[in-house]
Structure formats: structure tokens, C-alpha cells
Amino acid sequence: MRISERADHCRVKRLKDIVKLKLRTPRMLYTIKVTPSQAEEIIKRLNCRIVEV
């Protein structure tokens, strides 16, 4: 994930059937909605601080 290299942090919001990953860069906030199984794989590859919400 190239965005995570410039992101300050990544907020992880877990709901019933989806997980929202919110990556905060200096200019923009990127939001990705994925399934819980996909989220675990993506979180392992992120290069920024993880914040569970």
C-alpha cells in the first residue's frame, strides 16, 4: 500500500460485517471498506501507526 508510506496513521473501525480502514495523509483522508479477513491481510502490510477505534 503506497498510501500508507505517507500516511500519519491508520484508524481501524470494526463493524459487524465490514472493517473501515481510514488512512490520514497530510492532505487527504482515504477510507477503504473491506471484509474482516481482507482487513487482517491489509493491516499486516501497512507502514504506518495503527489506531483501533
Describe the structure in your own words.
With 53 residues, the protein is of the alpha+beta class. The chain has one domain. 26% of the residues lie in helices and 42% in strands. The longest helix has 10 residues, at 36-45. It is globular. The chain starts with a helix and ends with a strand.
Beta content comes to: 35-45%
Q: What sequence of helices (H) and strands (E) makes up the elements? A: HEEEHE
- Helix fraction by DSSP (H/I, runs of at least 4): 25-40%
Shape: globular
**Radius of gyration, rounded?**
10 Å
Annotation field: number of helices: 2
Low-confidence stretches: none
Instruction: Report the end-to-end length measured between terminal Cα atoms.
Output: 21 Å
How are the strands of the largest sheet arranged? 3-2-1-4
Largest sheet: 4 strands, mixed
Number of domains: 1
Give the class from helix and strand content and strand pairing: alpha+beta
Number of strands: 4
Mean pLDDT: 96
Write a brief structural summary.
It is built from two helices and four strands.
Strand and helix layout:
Blueprint lengths: L2 H4 L2 E6 L4 E6 L4 E6 L1 H10 L3 E4 L1
Parallel strand pairs: 1-4
Antiparallel strand pairs: 1-2, 2-3
Task: Supply the key terms.
single chain; 53 residues; alpha+beta; 4-stranded mixed β-sheet; 2 helices; 42% strand
